[in-house]
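Cross-check.
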Amino acid sequence: MTAGELARKFDFSAPSMSHHLSLLKAADLVRTERRGQSIVYSLNTSVLEDVSRFLLDLLGTR
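Predicted model, tokenized:
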């Protein structure tokens, strides 16, 4: 979704959502893809998988 689409779903302004998404992108938690004039954001699932593995190892459930 674009920052504007996400902002409408979460009742944020588009500039506020863009700011938060830029922080998530810097942390490599989201990916971006330019489509024409828009930037589409998606979750970087590989990072989430790594965190899940780490937590499972930490809790000794694997």
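The chain has a mean pLDDT of 88. The chain is about 60% helix and 20% strand. Passed to J.P. for a second look.
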